[in-house]
Amino acid sequence: MHATVTAASICRVASPPTYELIAFTDANRYEVWHSTMREEIQTLRANKTGTLVPFHPLMNVVGSLLVYKIKFQVDGIIERYKTHLVTRGFTQQEGIDYSETFSPLIK
Q1: Where along the chain do its domains lie?
Q2: Ranges under pLDDT 50 in the chain
């Protein structure tokens, strides 16, 4: 089942948070985190990091999650917000996809 989310149904907070978030639902409430998520997805697409393939029930899907980090300057002032898409490699199964390597970051 797909949920349709419209721009009108999401009210994002303009003021950036001063702490790192864990859950997508929390991060998506803030414009600054939403913007970094958008940038991360655009970077992954531009670098052709992966390919979307049709799902098959016999596949072992290696999940992913978004990690939110705040980069600080030496004096403690927030320099920037950063989001990384990381794979959950611990879901790999020996004999199926265990020998494949997933890099949590792209450069």
Answers
A1: 7-91
A2: 1-8, 104-107
